[in-house]
User: Which sequence fits this backbone?
């Protein structure tokens, strides 16, 4: 039996927090509900087709009386009332009720709809099931109203951060004449409902030039089969977590769901599967090297298996010296990103833990990192550090502050060079390993010498005119993770992790709230009042790696509310209140996998090594019990239980001690 099933990821829509724009995908397309309705459907995307402004609304005619769907709140409205529903990776189910006395007699209907994006064909299937709960026979007609919109064919190279806009000739390089009307097909919309009777209607929405479904129910079932196969493949080696700690188990599952909804198996994409940064709402269907590799490389490598090498090669084939992402067809997008090389090295290191890498792959990675390094000019003092330019090349704070010669990602550059040396020795790639290690040491030394302000207990950023700033950005903790911080520097940085500064009740702030120059509340992912979704769990992971177990747990437990209130995690979220910004953000993000990464490699201390070995060194919990089962590595099966006072680890049924190295099993 597979470790997880679709129902394990079911989410009660009544628990969704604003913004509650909910999408569901098939692996080749996505579709959204119209909030506040039982039947309404919004925009949909089935690359290359984009129908962002598509709208389907439904009303019912019962014995000549109109019953609308999606009425306004208030006692005067007498339409179909939403009554909750369930999100599942393959479909969205909604329930509604109509219970009214009309002309002295009761009319009572239960309505349930299922919304399924098509797999392998553009568009979606909406199934409406109606149950007559009254003692009268009714004549029923369903009246769909499909907005007169177009499905635009958008070249795969143009699916960037922002969703394609409606209509041909719009932003993104859409060519005029590449659109087709969105159309509706069905097999009948009327029924006679006896007392206690049922009726089911199926509607398909798709481009007029696409193949309509011959059997809508079979079409929806195909999406479910695709999702079942996807979960079986992606989660076959990912451990199952159970816990009596409130919120932990659900948070872990929602983290996995966040990765699963970024998984595309579109035959025209550059890799199959293709791991998008986001994509459910049509935006960031591209893959950024930065967040694909930088946040959850070990979990992603577990999910992808040997396909992780295909993903790495697709990035190496793109010109990362001038691009930060690849479009679904492999075309490079954007500008040079300072974190791309480090992120790709992270993913390659994770891939090496489960397979011997081809030396040519490691050499290509070295060439890309060398070229990217040359893309940014050396600093003016020693030429050792790099000036990473302004916010367009970094992580996009809206104010000046963390720019140019910065501790991060210079520290990550040192880690990458050191890791390249390790990968070269293991693979046999002919790289100058001694030179790489010496450069890494020199960079770490200069990061502290040039940029650390001992009086402030923080890193300064230096501009080309010599001006320096203290920007209390969460990016400083990446220096801690990259191994550049002596004990006294690490201790000073960690002192800033306190409530009212970086710690909020519901997460972490990307800029300390005590930093009046740089903290803001509007653009939260990198400028304060919240953070990019991967940042808080990555901070917890960093703290576990440093042995700061109590503080790491304190950071992670602030996120458990997300597992109860999101079906999958959004691009960013607030740190002082539950929820995310209402507009301008992506509905889902691959960095949501970081929660599972932090739990497995941080709390559980499971460390796959590039030589194929494994070390397991769990951290104790302050309360409760956590159990991990079904984790597989190099054909070993590992089970793990953590409590406040003990840990129990078994490898292939044999108990081992914490910290013991598990060697790779011979092929």
Assistant:
């Amino acid at each position: 039996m597979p470790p997880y099933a679709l129902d394990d990821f079911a989410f009660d829509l009544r628990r969704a927090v604003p913004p509650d724009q909910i999408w569901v995908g098939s692996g080749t397309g996505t579709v959204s509900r119209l909030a506040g309705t039982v039947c309404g459907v919004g925009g949909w995307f089935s690359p290359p087709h984009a129908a962002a402004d598509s709208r389907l609304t439904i009303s019912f005619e019962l014995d000549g009386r109109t019953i609308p769907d999606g009425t306004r709140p208030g006692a005067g409205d007498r339409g179909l009332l939403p009554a909750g529903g369930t999100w599942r990776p393959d479909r969205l189910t909604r329930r509604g009720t109509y219970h009214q006395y009309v002309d002295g007699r009761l009319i009572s209907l239960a309505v349930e709809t299922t919304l399924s994006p098509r797999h392998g064909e553009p568009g979606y299937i909406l199934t409406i099931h109606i149950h007559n709960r009254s003692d009268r026979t009714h004549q029923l007609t369903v009246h769909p109203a499909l907005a007169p919109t177009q499905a635009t064919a958008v070249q795969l190279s143009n699916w960037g951060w922002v969703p394609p806009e409606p209509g041909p000739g719009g932003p993104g390089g859409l060519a005029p004449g590449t659109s087709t009307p969105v159309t509706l097909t069905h097999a009948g919309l009327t029924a006679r409902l006896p007392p206690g009777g049922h009726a089911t209607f199926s509607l398909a929405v798709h481009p007029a030039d696409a193949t309509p479904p011959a059997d809508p129910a079979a079409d929806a079932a195909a999406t479910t089969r695709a999702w079942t196969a996807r979960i079986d493949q992606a989660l076959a080696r990912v451990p199952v977590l159970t816990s009596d700690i409130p919120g932990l188990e659900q948070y872990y599952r929602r983290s996995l769901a966040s990765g699963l909804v970024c998984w595309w198996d579109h035959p025209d994409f550059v890799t199959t599967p293709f791991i998008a940064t986001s994509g459910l709402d049509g935006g960031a269907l591209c893959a950024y090297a930065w967040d694909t590799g930088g946040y959850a490389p070990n979990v992603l490598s577990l999910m992808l298996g040997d396909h992780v090498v295909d993903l790495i090669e697709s990035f190496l084939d793109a010109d990362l010296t001038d691009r930060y992402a690849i479009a679904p067809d492999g075309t490079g997008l954007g500008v040079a990103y300072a974190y791309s090389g480090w992120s790709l090295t992270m993913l390659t290191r994770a891939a090496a833990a489960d397979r011997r890498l081809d030396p040519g792959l490691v050499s290509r990675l070295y060439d890309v990192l060398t070229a990217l390094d040359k893309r940014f000019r050396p600093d003016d003092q020693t030429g050792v550090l790099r000036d990473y330019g302004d916010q367009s090349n970094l992580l996009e704070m809206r104010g000046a502050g963390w720019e140019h010669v910065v501790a991060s990602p210079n520290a990550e550059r040192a880690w990458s060079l050191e890791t390249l040396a390790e990968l070269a020795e293991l693979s046999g790639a002919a790289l100058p390993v001694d030179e790489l290690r010496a450069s890494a040491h020199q960079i770490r030394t200069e990061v502290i010498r040039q940029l650390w302000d001992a009086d402030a207990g923080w890193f300064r950023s230096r501009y080309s005119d010599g001006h320096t700033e203290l920007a209390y950005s969460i990016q400083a903790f990446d220096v801690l993770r990259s191994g550049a911080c002596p004990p006294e520097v690490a201790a000073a940085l960690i002192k800033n992790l306190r409530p009212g500064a970086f710690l909020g009740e519901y997460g972490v702030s990307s800029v300390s709230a005590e930093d009046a120059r740089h903290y803001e509340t509007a653009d939260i992912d990198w400028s304060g009042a919240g953070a990019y979704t991967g940042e808080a769990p990555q901070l917890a992971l960093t703290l576990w790696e440093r042995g700061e177990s109590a503080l790491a747990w304190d950071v992670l437990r602030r996120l458990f509310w997300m597992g109860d209130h999101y079906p999958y995690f959004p691009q960013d979220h607030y740190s002082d209140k539950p929820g995310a910004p209402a507009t301008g953000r992506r509905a889902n993000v691959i960095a949501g996998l970081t929660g599972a990464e932090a739990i497995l490699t941080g709390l559980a201390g499971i460390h796959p090594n590039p030589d194929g070995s494994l070390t397991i060194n769990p951290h104790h919990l302050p309360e409760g019990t956590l159990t991990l089962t079904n984790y597989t590595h190099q054909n070993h099966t590992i089970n793990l239980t953590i409590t406040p006072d003990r840990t129990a680890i078994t490898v292939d049924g044999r108990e081992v001690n914490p910290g013991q190295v598990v060697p790779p099993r011979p092929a």
Residues 6-231 form a domain with the Beta-galactosidase; Chain A, domain 5 fold (CATH 2.70.98).
